[in-house]
Amino acid sequence: xxxxxxxxxxxxxxxxxxxxxxxxxxxxxxxxxxxxxxxxxxxxxxxxxxxxxxxxxxxxxxxxxxxxxxxxxxxxxxxxxxxxxxxxxxxxxxxxxxxxxxxxxxxxxxxxxxxxxxxxxx
Length: 122
Known about the structure:
The chain has one helix and seven strands. The chain has one helix at residues 2-27; strands at 30-37, 42-50, 61-67, 76-84, 87-93, 98-108, 111-121. A seven-stranded antiparallel β-sheet has the order 1-2-5-4-3-6-7.
């Protein structure tokens, strides 16, 4: 049934997450991330992605998923533009004020990078 299957699925997801974290650590990539919400609910995102030698990681496909931790049904995703030199950015409009978790995912032929950041939109 659903009750016995859910813990199994959650366990598989947890193991997959641990594998992804280990892979990310071996890459040595770091992301300098900033989110800048304004009074009108717009949010500007900036990500600077570098490798273990502090070289810019360009050519990644970067998305930001906005997740509302207190209410379902408002989550959305945007694609960040590759500005060159390992810098990715984008602007969006939050549909509601309050707390949002931003889940950044960068996919690159050499690997993947993920981070989560919580913001407050006025």
